[in-house]
Amino acid sequence: MGIGSRVRQLGLLAGMAASALCLASAAEAQEKHKIFLSMSFIGNDWQAEAANMVKAMVAHPSLADKVDLQVQVAGPNAQRQIQQINAMVQAGAEAIVIFPISPTALNQVVKNACDKGVKVFAYDAEITEPCAYNVHIDQEEAGRVTAEWLVQKLGGKGEIVAITGVPGTSVDDLRTKAAKEVFAKHPDIKIVAEAVGMWSQAVARTELSKILGTRSWDDIDGLWMQVGCFTANSMQLEAGKKTSELLPCAGEGSNGGRIQMLPESTEVEGAASPYAPLGAPRISYASPPYSGALALKLAVAALEGKEVPKKTILPLPLVTNETIKLCEEGTWEEMKAGCNAFKPALVSNPGWFASIFSDQTPEIGLNAALVGQPED
Amino acid sequence: MTDTALPSTASGSTGLRRALAKNRGALIAAAVFALLLFLVDWISAGPLTYFDISFLSSGGATSAIAAIGQTIVILSGGFDLSAGAVISLVNVVLASGMDPMAPASVALWTLAGIGIGACVGAFNGFFIAVLRMQPIVVTLSTMFILQGVTLLVMDKPGGGVSPDLGAFYLGDAIPGWLPMPLVVIGVVLLLWLWLKGTRFGTALYAVGSDADSAAAVGVNVVLTKFLVYVIAGGCYGLAGVFISAQTGSGDPLVGNPLLLSMFAAVVVGGTRLGGGQGGPVGTVFGAYILMMVVNILLVLNVSAYYSTIAEGTILILAVLAGSISHGSVLAQQLRAAKARFAAWRAGMLPSQLDRVDRRLRIAAPVREPKASATRPPFHIRNAETLRYALPAYVCLLVVVVVTQLWLGRAIFNPGYWNSLLVLSSFLAILALGQGTVILTGGLDLSVPWTIGISGIVLAGMVNGSDAALVYALPTVLLMAVAIGFANGVGIAYLGISPIVMTLATNGILQGFALLYSQGTPAGFSSPMLRWFMTGRILGITPVVFFLIAFAAAAVLLLGRTAFGRRVYGIGNGVRAAQLSGIAVEKTLILVYVLSAVCAALVGIMLTGFSGQASLGMGDDYLLPSIAVVVVGGALITGGRGHYLGMLGGVLLLTALQMLLAGTTLPYATRAILYGLVVLGAVMALRERRLH
Question: A-contacting residues of B 144-183, CB under 8 Å?
């Protein structure tokens, strides 16, 4: 919380006042594309990071004088997002970028927007209405690949604990079903306990504690978690395990988890256990938070008349102990060269999502995800 | 002629005034709505067209229709948490049952939706009216059960409803003049107005005002309450049909987030929680006011981080606007302050008078030798407390035995008991705060983000240093005192309903937490705090010792102090408490401060437990914090409950979750089981007829 953030807040306030008072600046806006962003719930790390990257993308010189972006939050309420999209269409949106709360509930309103010539882009999750553009990873692949890694790591035999995401969402359903199909092919792999993790490290810890009330770490051979490997490793250390005894864990792409994957001897600035190199056996996958920024870039391209495919499937970011590499500064160039974890001195929040690299978005690097500033 | 005309006009005008006074809530809501509509029209680029009105009307219709049902329940003195779950259930049933391509009968599927809702309502009504169980627990259990059933019907978004449904509900009744959603709401309101005029309508208001008096004058309370839930269920069902038409597809989570805003709509619309006053017409305006906020934020381009703050502020202002009148709490407080000032000037305040003993002189009572009157045995002295607190512990025993039989390794495994107590510690502490608020007849919905902001601020300040705890802990707790103080002042002095005030505070705190953390909370817990939550002394986690001390202190606070007696006094009747000299306002403020401090403690503990703080870390604790209080035997309308009972509720629910987490049952089945156990646990608590 330095002066910078305070200046930014003042700027936001001034922006509010300005937009309320002088709506006459329409002449200027005419040259710019009017684009709206409808986010879901803003209160988690992933959403905040995605929002920062969108902000950075808009601030980049290549887009700054082309785009007039307004960000709105719908919360977890699909009904509100419907209303919000309607209001955006009424307010003269040329394109709307959406983090869809529901893949299906928005279909009617999205179709309505398309009919009025508005380009609708969904990021991370999907909108099933055919006129919408979608930018996301293949969730089934994520479930399948992580499960296959775990099976291979365990030699096809063992008792595992599964921590899933938010029940009733397509993303959770696709990942979990794909993973279970893999486990079903190996009769010696047994899921002994399963809990709902809500994609949150805090919930993962509570659920794991519940499971461990009636089970000990020695009874478990491996973990398949949508989010929570960082926490699971911390808990094993607390229970007195040595770092060499950590269980294989297939899970999320948080920076804390990535740092834990580094060999124990690695020198890392700002590291403190459990946010430190442990040599933990892991596969780390992620739904990358740059998808919103990319969706925005594609939306501008579509408005400029370029051909944009309706479906952009992002490459699944996968990192294993073999491919883990620490970044020095976290510039886009550096990440392009293959680094994928950031020093705790730079990223103090271990729950922060580290999969921010895309070869399609040279505009944004570490600073974009952290504070919303584009690359030079 | 003139002689007779005069009184008649006079009575006419008082009749008009009475009608105005009776419908003040609804009228003010309508005025606020008109103001907001005008505001949107004024600040939007173009004038509002029929098209915009049509959009707005369909946007708010789902919550308006559902909130009408909720209003009827609240008028009867009840509370219905299952509303959102019914909407989801109807949505998935329609989306999986209808053929999205083929034409379908709108009337038939509408009836099906209303029917499902009414069946759920009958289920609720049976337990609440016939078995006389507390509405909040019954409907909370129903909510869990329905969420499970919904996921069994459809485990992920998908399916589709026939376009006919959408064409009908989103179309125009009179093209260019009257959108269909308004007609649907109009028809529901007309049905309500008809119902209100019948004997049932009178009975409804009578039961809501005072169930005992209603029963005494021959109203069939059981039947009235039962019908209330059936009718309300039908409304939620219709809302489910409407949202299906609007979205054209199914999503098992679509209805859940509508629940809290539904209560806000009811209260903004001028209906009093606790029953007997208000009506659905105001609620409809309330629902649309909340919906309009979305548009206003968009036109003003309020930044995402500020949106929850703006919403919370608008909510408070809307309610305050509705309470500006001679009879409002605020006006009463101002008059009282004026009277106190006058007394001070006249030198007549009690504190200004000489401290002379003015008691009547009565001869000292002859002290009877005490030995003759033996104290009744323990179980008779505490019969009532035991009756309400015991069921939770009995159920806990059953759950533990089942865990032992099913998973092995429970009763004789010290690790099991340690985990149980550590995991219970969060809810046990929240239970004191939420429980005390509930004992005064209130509800604290600001718990989630009080937890969140406390954890985030603490982690940011501590940043891994034990030394920093020395100033970080007091800072966070002081912040919590300020939060509780704000809640208390709003409720006690401004007369804002606890639900609205704390809901608004929750939104405002969420905004502050986002601004403070800039979206990603920095910092992490210090080693000592982590040790406190996860370390071991003789195989026991340190927090367990703290929990035992806390529980003892909580029992003493509520049972043995003047503060505790005042809390029970207020819960049994505010008016009586006031007349017997309890400083109601000060006590209420203290109660909300206590609740906020408890929530802050939980935020601190969660930060230590997880090692870091995250946004939204408190979200999963709101409904459980209410559930444990009620499962532990407290009365949601206040005045009855014991902390040990609440503690039993906490242990029961935590043990149950540990049992379910140790299995591989699908989530849907777990939700259903969880709901059934909660329902079963409180079955023993049901009100037996005393006469």
Answer: 150-151, 155-160, 166, 170
- In this structure, is residue B344 part of a structural domain? no
More confident residue, B457 or B349: B457
The model's confidence at residue A12, banded by pLDDT at 50, 70 and 90, is very low
Inform me whether the C-beta atom of residue A86 falls under 8 Å from chain B C-beta atoms.
Answer: yes
Say yes or no for a CB contact (<8 Å) between B300 and A20: yes
**Residue B580: its pLDDT value, please?**
85
What is the token pair recorded at B397? 């025993």
Residues of A whose CB is below 8 A from B170: 108
Q: Chain A neighbours among B 450-489 (CB < 8 Å)?
A: 452, 460, 463-464
From chain B, pick out residues whose CB is under 8 angstroms from the CB of A215.
407, 409, 662
Is residue A279, in this structure, part of any structural domain at all?
no
CA atoms in the 13 A half-sphere facing the CB of A158: 22
Of A51, A70, A348, the CB nearest to B522: A348
Q: Does A26 touch chain B (CB under 8 A)?
A: yes
Residue A376 domain flag: no
Domain boundary residue among B197, B218, B253?
B253
For residue A341, list its beta bridge partners. Answer: A326
Domain with B463, as residue range(s), is 386-683
Residue A191 included in any domain:
no
pLDDT tens digits for B415-471? 899 999 999 999 999 999 999 999 998 889 999 999 999 999 999 899 888 899 999
Residues A210, B658 contacting (CB under 8 angstroms): yes
Q: Classify residue A292: in a domain, yes or no.
A: yes
CB-based contact B234:B245 (threshold 8 Å): no
Average pLDDT over chain B reads 86
Residues A74-127 have pLDDT tens digits of 878 888 899 899 889 988 899 999 999 888 899 989 999 999 999 999 999 899
Residue-level pLDDT at A9: 44
The pLDDT confidence band at residue A3, using thresholds 50, 70 and 90, is very low
For an interface test with A, which of B87, B152, B298, B399 has the most A Cβ atoms less than 10 Å from its Cβ?
Answer: B298
> Inter-chain contact B612–A351, Cβ cutoff 8 Å?
yes
Distance CA B195, CA B71 (A): 14
> Which range among A258-262, B546-550, B598-602, B628-632 shows the weakest confidence by mean pLDDT?
B628-632
Shortest Cα–Cα distance, B543 to chain A (Å) = 15
Give the pLDDT score at B609: 92
Distances (CA, A) of B568 to A320, B429, B634: 59, 19, 11
pLDDT of residue A5: 42
**pLDDT in the model for residue B370:** 55
Q: Does B652 map to a domain? A: yes
pLDDT-derived band at A201, boundaries 50, 70, 90: confident
Kindly list the distances between the CA atom of residue A63 and the CA atoms of A66, A96, A249, B381, in Å, as whole numbers in the listed order: 5, 16, 40, 76
Shared domain for B66 and B209, answered yes or no, is: yes
Question: What CATH number is associated with residue B549?
Answer: 1.10.3470
Cβ–Cβ of A44/B615 closer than 8 Å?
yes
Cα dist from B586 to A264, B180, B341, B487, whole Å: 57, 50, 18, 12
Contact between chains at A349 and B612 (C-beta distance less than 8 A):
yes
Q: Exposure string (b/e) for B678-690, b if CB count within 10 Å is 16 or more?
A: bbebbeebbeeee
Among B219, B253, B287, residue at a domain's last position: B253
**Can you give the CATH number for the domain in which A82 is found?**
3.40.50.2300
Residue of A nearest to B418 (CA): A213
How many domains are there within chain B? 2
- A247 close contact with B: CB closer than 8 A: no
How many residues appear in chain B?
691
Task: Give domain status of residue B13, yes or no.
Answer: no
The ipTM of this complex is 0.86
Place of tokens 């129903």: B142
Which residues of chain A does B60 touch, with a Cβ-Cβ cutoff of 8 Å?
A: 83
Mutate which: A25, A38, A77, vs B, most B CBs within 10 A: A77
Count structural domains, chain A: 1
State yes or no: pLDDT of B688 exceeds 60: no
A262/B contact by beta carbon, under 8 A: no
- Tell me, yes or no, if A3 comes closer than 8 A to chain B by beta carbon: no
What's the pLDDT at A149? 96
Residue A24: give the domain boundaries: 10-137+288-314
Residue B94 lies in a domain: yes
